[in-house]
Design brief:
four-stranded parallel sheet; two-stranded antiparallel sheet; 5 helices; 37% helix; 153 residues; alpha/beta; single chain; 17% strand; 6 strands
Amino acid sequence: TVGGGRGMIDKIKIMFVCTGNGCRSRMAAGLARHIGGDRFEFYSAGLDCMEVDPRAAVVMAELGLDISGEKPQPIDPELMQRMDYVITLCEAAEEGCPEAPDSVARLYWPFPNPSEAEGTEAEIMAQFREVRDGIRHKLQEFLDGFPFEITGS
């Protein structure tokens, strides 16, 4: 939105929501901050709060992004009211996320929870990378749709 005709552009506020805020929404916010640059404000939250899954931190560190020190955030309905977009990343979040006013666009990008992946450590890590890369691809497409140059890489 353009503020007061002065040419100032308000930051676009986006909240990512998943079940526990320990993996998908945390990876999405970390990736978004990296890709989106300073034209956006990104938040992440969960229906229930869990610490960052260590494997999520590892696959993000592979891209040079550190999400290990972030604290889990419950959904703050007041903060949610101020978002431009709320993006739910799983069916549980889509169903359990509080309603937001009509001014808040709601998007649903379902991704499996890699924290629930089974198999060898290599297979589980492959699931984390697959979800990370899927979120990154979806984010890139979404952010590329905004009518200004993205400053991140």
